[in-house]
Every structure is written in C-alpha cells, then in structure tokens.
Amino acid sequence: DIANRKKIHLLRQNVGQIVKHDLKEPIANCMRSINTLLDTKVNQKQQQYLANIYHQIQQILYMVDYTMDLFEMEDDEYIVKLEKFNLIELIWDLDKQLHTLKKFHSVDIGYQFHNQPLKQDDSYLLFGQRNHMQSMFAHLMINAVKLSSTGSRINISIKDDQDMEDLDDDPLNTLKFMVD
Q1: Does residue 174 contact residue 161 with C-beta atoms inside 8 Å?
Q2: Who has greater pLDDT, 21 or 84?
Q3: Distances in Å between the alpha carbon of 148 and those of 87, 112, 141, 143, 152?
Q4: Which of 115, 117, 109 is nearest to 148 (CA)?
Q5: Are 80 and 129 in contact (CB under 8 A)?
Q6: How far is it, in rounded angstroms, from Cα 54 to Cα 27?
Q7: Rounded to whole angstroms, how far apart are CA atoms 35 and 162?
Q8: Strands annotated E in the chain
Q9: 133-149 pLDDT per residue, tens
Q10: Is residue 80 classed exposed, middle or buried when 0-12, 13-18 and 19+ CB atoms within 10 A define those classes?
Q11: Residue 87 parent element (H or E)
Q12: How many Cβ atoms are within 10 Å of 111's Cβ, its own excluded?
C-alpha cells in the first residue's frame, strides 16, 4: 500500500511537471502572440476577436492551474493563495464568456445585487481565490443556461448578510448566489 502511494505521488509530480512545461508554456506563448497582434494595426472587430481569444486562452490556463490545485489538495500539499477580487467584475466577465451559449439557447440572464439590478460599476470585494469562485459560478451559470427552456430568462441574485435575516443561524454563510 505504501509503495502504491509513493507511485501515485511520483506520478502526480510528473503530471505536474508535464503540465507546467508542456501545456502552460505554449499557452503563455499564444497569449504573448495575441498581445503582439493587438499592438499592430487591427480594426475594432479584429481587436474584439483577439481579445475574446485571449480571454478564452486565459480560461484554459486557469483550468490547468485549477486541476493542479486539485492534485495538490489530494496530496495534502495545497497552499491556499488568497487574493482580493471584485465579485461583480467576475460575474460580468462570466456573462461575456457565456454570450455565445446564451445566444445558442435563446436564454437571457438578469442579475440582482442587494435586491437591485446589477450594474457594471457595482463592486463587492471578497478575499479568496478568484479562479475557484469563477469556476464554481461558471458551472452554476452554464448548467442554468443549458437546462433552461428556449426563450426563458434566468434570474441570478447575489445576496449577503445585509439582505437576509436567516443568516443568524449560520454565521459562516455570509454570501448566497441564487439562480432561479
């Protein structure tokens, strides 16, 4: 059993090295190439396409990092890397990413924050792991879009303890992301 655990641990380390060198480096090169193209004379539509491609490549990089985090969690070697980030900015980023999926399914998403329509300039700062939150919210939003009827509207409401009285029962439950 100990020999198998060591083999698994070494295999995970090898996978980690392969991911870092064989996957992340070409991804980073693609991102650098797009930045170089953006510095040249491209029209606005081309600029938008390049920015979209850049963002999608960035998402692939995040997913590679997330997968590596999961490996580290299983080996009890994971170190939490907390950062301050704006949850509202994250939601609008996800909304842009879901544009094609929403269009394909003919679904609209409405957002509320503190029981008011969400605005682009709203801000809600959190201290945590942005990539992990983004992954979690993306899965929820993608599933909501895919499972909705054609032509329907999804309502996503972001609430915290300012908006809800029932949080007194659970002091750790300070943010709710609800999809109807």
Answers
A1: yes
A2: 84
A3: 24, 19, 11, 8, 7
A4: 109
A5: yes
A6: 10
A7: 41
A8: 83-86, 108-113, 116-117, 125-128, 153-160, 175-179
A9: 888 888 888 888 888 88
A10: exposed
A11: helix 87-97
A12: 18
CA torsion, ordered 49, 50, 55, 58, to nearest 10 deg: 150
Q: Which two tokens stand for residue 151?
A: 């032509």
Structure tokens at 106: 């003919």
Which residues have C-beta within 8 Å of that of residue 141, sequence separation ≥ 6? 94, 98, 109, 154, 156, 179
**At a CB cut-off of 8 Å and minimum separation 6, what does 143 contact?**
none
For 89-99, how does the pLDDT look when each residue is reduced to its tens digit (9 = 90+)? 999 988 988 88
- pLDDT, residue 134, reads 85
Strand order in the sheet with 108-113: 116-117, 108-113, 153-160, 175-179
Cα distances from 108 to residues 7, 55, 113, 122, 125, in angstroms, run 48, 22, 17, 20, 26
The two three-digit tokens of residue 41, written as one number: 């004379």
Q: What is the chain's percent helix, strand, coil content, to nearest 5? A: 60, 15, 25
CA distance 35 to 26: 14
d(CA 91, CA 3): 45
Which residue is associated with the tokens 């998402």? 59
User: b vs e for 17-46, b when ≥16 Cβ sit within 10 Å of the residue's Cβ?
Assistant: eeeeeeebeeeeebbeebeeeeeeeeeeee
